[in-house]
Design goal:
Strand content: 25-35%
Shape: globular
Helix content: 25-40%
Radius of gyration: 24 Å
Bound molecules: NADPH dihydro-nicotinamide-adenine-dinucleotide phosphate
Number of domains: 3
Structural class: alpha/beta
Length: 447
């Protein structure tokens, strides 16, 4: 029927690639997918999933402490890192199997190995020449490792899931998602954690009041923050202990140094230049609204395009790609009002415009806040206040942003995001009767 070996060749078995391959095959395309590591990609293998399981594991530290105030006689409890680590890794292996099964059940041929592009329709896989009508680059992104003397003594989140032992003192570089999530994890497991950031802004892009609340609570818990510091060198002693030297601060001793300073698209050595695929200054594949690169037969979805580095977005892009190309159903991803969360301790979550963004864009905005101590925290004597904020367009009364920090904020926000996406007004929030006693009732009680 066609001169090509496959209709579609997908490079990368992560969230975007797997969805695109599976759906394209279901639409009738002949599909192969190459993966050099494990099917599942960053999210399943070394990101969202194992991280969330570690967050659950870490939270028991606070739950066990709080339980005593609720009458439970909790004896001294020990934590075993190897038990949690191995259980999490076993779950990751189980999920990897499920992802591979899904692909093979949909007649996607899964090929192990590193694929490189050799032309608009050709791929090399460990010396094997393969041709395809369309190539989809879904190779994801990888943590950035800085460059200074001794930088090789640090790890990234990739390695954090495999540590032999829990470190006593951890230095984390960066102040974004991964830094704050892992700071919470290591701190709850009993480590002394220092976050070292080049600016004095953590979680840039989130609403200022929510970021400030996380900073305050994290510092209260004992996490140390060093701002406006640049790494100079790291020395490793005979005993394996690290001394981290930086400008703007005295050196810090640590057992573990972890970099969380962003992720760069995986395009190095992929051969994309052989097909005339343009990359941007960060090495990301430049694509149009239909995920098509500057080479007509090559498309890209997910983190490799550096648009929104979130799994559900990559999945949507993969779905839109497959429906458009092979399902006769042209679809584009709507990037408006994407909810996001940071699984810190406590977690925070957000959808829509921050107060600052709304003021810039809309001019006149009203904000409503609820600053409260969750009932459970009151009885537990836990001095941690939650903060919810609604940002409302003064002219139309539309709720254009919701920002929250507090227990279960991501779980609550997912439902609230429907209202923001639907363009509901503040008066419609007010019409809803509170569900008492919950934390989420605050969303309809702000006046
Ligand atoms: P982020 O982009 O969240 O944060 C990067 C941090 O590192 C910022 O504080 C930034 O500072 C700092 N930084 C950037 N470059 C340098 C540098 N050269 N030297 C020193 N510091 C630097 O990156 P992460 O690595 O934490 O996460 C990567 C992405 O993965 C996230 O953006 C997110 O999209 C995704 N992710 C999502 C999660 C979730 O949904 N819960 C969880 C984990 C990751 P500054 O702000 O001053 O530039």
């Amino acid at each position: 029927m066609t001169a090509y070996d496959y209709d579609l060749f997908v490079i990368g078995g992560g969230s975007g690639g797997v969805r695109a391959a599976r759906v394209s095959a279901a639409h009738g395309a002949r599909v192969a997918l190459a993966e050099e590591h494990k099917v599942g990609g960053t999210c399943v293998i070394r990101g969202c999933v194992p991280k969330k399981l570690l967050v659950y594991g870490a939270h028991f530290a606070e739950d066990l402490a709080d339980a005593r105030r609720f009458g439970w006689n909790v004896p001294k409890c020990d934590f075993s890192w190897p038990v949690l680590r191995d259980n999490v890794l076993a779950e990751v292996t189980r999920l990897e199997g499920l992802y591979t099964d899904t692909l093979t059940k949909h007649d996607v041929e899964v090929l192990k190995g590193r694929a490189t592009v050799t032309g608009p329709h050709s791929i090399d896989l460990a010396g094997r020449k393969i041709t395809a009508g369309t190539i989809l680059v879904a190779s994801g992104a990888t943590p950035i490792v800085p460059d200074f003397p001794g930088a090789e003594h640090g790890i990234t989140s990739n390695e954090a899931f495999h540590l032999d032992a829990l470190p006593e003192r951890v230095v984390i570089a960066g102040g974004g998602y991964i830094a704050n999530e892992f700071a919470g994890i290591f701190h709850e497991f009993g480590a002394k954690v220092s976050i070292v950031n080049r600016s004095d802004v953590i979680l840039r892009g989130y609403d200022e009041s929510i970021r400030d609340r996380l900073l305050t609570i994290s510092m209260m818990k004992g996490i140390e923050f060093k701002f406006h510091c640049a790494f100079e060198r790291v020395e490793k002693g005979e005993d394996g202990r690290l001394t981290v030297h930086m400008s703007g601060s005295d050196p810090i001793e640590a057992d573990l140094l972890m970099y969380a300073i962003g992720r760069k698209p995986n395009t190095a050595g992929l051969g994309l230049e052989t097909a005339g695929v343009d990359l941007d200054g960060n090495g990301a594949v430049v694509v149009n609204a239909d995920n098509q690169s500057t080479c007509d037969s090559i498309y890209a979805v997910g983190d490799v395009t550096n648009r929104v580095q979130l799994t559900p977005v990559a999945i949507r892009e993969g779905q839109a790609f497959a429906d458009t190309l092979f399902g006769n159903k042209p679809t584009r991803v709507d990037y408006e009002n994407i909810p996001a969360a940071v699984f810190s301790h406590p977690p925070l979550a957000s959808v829509g415009m921050t107060e600052g963004q709304a003021r810039n864009k809309l001019g006149s905005v009203k904000t409503y806040t609820s600053d409260f101590r969750p009932m459970k925290n009151v009885l537990a004597n836990r001095n941690e206040r939650a903060l919810y904020k609604l940002v409302v367009d003064s002219e139309t009364d539309q709720v254009v942003g919701i920002h929250m920090i507090g227990p279960d904020a991501p779980e609550i926000l997912q439902a609230a995001a429907i209202a923001v996406k639907a363009g509901l007004k503040k008066s419609q929030f007010d019409e809803v009767v509170a569900l008492h006693p919950t934390m989420s009732e605050e969303l309809v009680l702000m006046r």
